[in-house]
Backbone:
């Protein structure tokens, strides 16, 4: 759910004319939390937070938790103070990706002109689907019904003449609703909103505009351009003025190539042993490699991110000898990068691995060396992918990541 300010005074009905509103913004409601509730229906109606139990940030929260002020990207420590009665569930990213593929498959049945925005939202241009499926409002209703029926998940949809307004409309349609903003009502809808609803207006900019008595989009729209340029710069002032009057010429872009694929973890207790940090990197390398193979991409470089106890963060990156989607190669370079970093006395709070310089596997020439085991390693990892897809992400892992049995747990289950 967008955390941009919403107006309590904004009308829920701006008219029924959808003849000039081909843009849909589909946004899954509290996606991670909604997926978890499918497996835990007894938690419906209760405050639920998806995220780390002690560290990290909130990934999603049910509306019952949001009523206490909890929102995504909030530190978990703060969320637990605001809503101590909340049930905290650790994330299952494999399950979320699986459900996301189901959502995108349904959207793709409507139109090929789809622009995903992450895992749980997308823009659609349904201009070409009108003859087959009807007007935009009917398409949006059918989409929401099909997602609910096939996946059991709620989705909100905004319908408008531009991407910007469609995204704002979906935010105002939540939870589990639909809002149409006819082209003729665009300016009226925008001018009913607080200025923080405009893209690019964060807390600092909003406070700066408030000092100029600009508190709503209508205030900004009627502010002289010279004043806005002086306050926000040439490009910033012009862009916000365009948005305030509904001017957004951007088309839905059906192809969005990922610039990087990564995974990072915030630890419940700071890690100090290099062996522990290496194990985390190995796990992250396997996760990233599986995502590369799923997207049919190769990585040309690797970067790591290390954050210490006082939140000092550093990154290191290096190009690979050859593009790859093999975890062993990603891990080998990431481990070399980590070896060049001094572990702080207070330990490492967060560690991340990112694959960069991505290229399409089908269009990338890779020189195969006969003296290494790269092919065999990749075949083994592909086999692991198939097992995880069938039995779940936690069904299989690298042997070196399994806990070592002690006298006390030697008979325990290590799977």
Residues:
């Amino acid at each position: 759910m967008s955390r941009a300010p919403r107006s309590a005074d904004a009308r829920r009905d701006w008219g029924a004319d959808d003849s000039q509103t081909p843009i849909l913004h589909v946004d899954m409601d509290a996606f991670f939390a909604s997926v978890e509730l499918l497996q835990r229906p007894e938690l419906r109606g209760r405050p639920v937070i998806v995220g780390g139990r002690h560290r990290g940030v909130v990934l999603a929260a049910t509306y019952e938790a949001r009523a206490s002020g909890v929102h995504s990207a909030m530190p978990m420590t703060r969320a637990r103070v605001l809503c101590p009665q909340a049930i905290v569930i650790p994330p299952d990213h494999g399950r979320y990706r699986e459900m996301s593929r189901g959502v995108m498959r349904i959207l793709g049945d409507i139109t090929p002109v789809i622009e995903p925005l992450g895992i749980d939202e997308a823009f659609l241009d349904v201009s070409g689907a009108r003859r087959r499926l009807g007007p935009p409002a009917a398409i949006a209703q059918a989409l929401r019904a099909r997602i609910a029926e096939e996946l059991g998940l709620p989705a909100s949809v905004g319908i408008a003449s531009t991407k910007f307004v469609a995204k704002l409309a979906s935010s105002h349609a939540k939870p589990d609703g639909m809002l149409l903003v006819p082209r003729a009502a665009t300016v009226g809808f925008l001018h009913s909103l607080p200025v923080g609803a405009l893209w690019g207006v964060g807390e600092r900019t909003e406070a700066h505009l408030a000092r100029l008595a600009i508190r709503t989009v209508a205030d900004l729209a009627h502010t002289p351009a010279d004043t806005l340029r002086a306050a926000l710069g040439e490009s910033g002032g012009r862009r916000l003025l365009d948005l305030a009057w509904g001017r957004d010429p951007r088309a839905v872009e059906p192809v969005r190539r990922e610039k990087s694929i990564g995974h990072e973890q915030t630890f419940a207790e700071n890690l100090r042993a290099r062996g522990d940090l290496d194990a985390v990197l190995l796990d992250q390398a396997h996760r990233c490699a599986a995502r590369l193979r799923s997207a049919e991409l190769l990585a040309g470089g690797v970067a790591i991110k290390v954050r210490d106890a006082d939140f000092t963060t550093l990154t290191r990156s290096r190009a690979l000898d050859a593009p790859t989607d093999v975890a062993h190669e990603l891990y080998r370079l990431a481990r070399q990068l980590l070896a060049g970093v001094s572990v702080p006395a207070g330990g490492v709070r967060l560690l991340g691995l990112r694959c960069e310089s991505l290229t399409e596997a089908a269009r990338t020439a890779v020189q195969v060396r006969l003296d290494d085991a790269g092919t065999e390693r990749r075949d083994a990892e592909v086999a692991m992918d198939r097992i995880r897809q069938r039995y779940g992400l936690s069904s299989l892992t690298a042997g070196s990541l399994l806990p070592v049995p002690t006298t006390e747990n030697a008979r325990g289950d290590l799977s």
Observations:
- The mean pLDDT is 86.
- Residues 274-295 form the longest helix (22 residues).
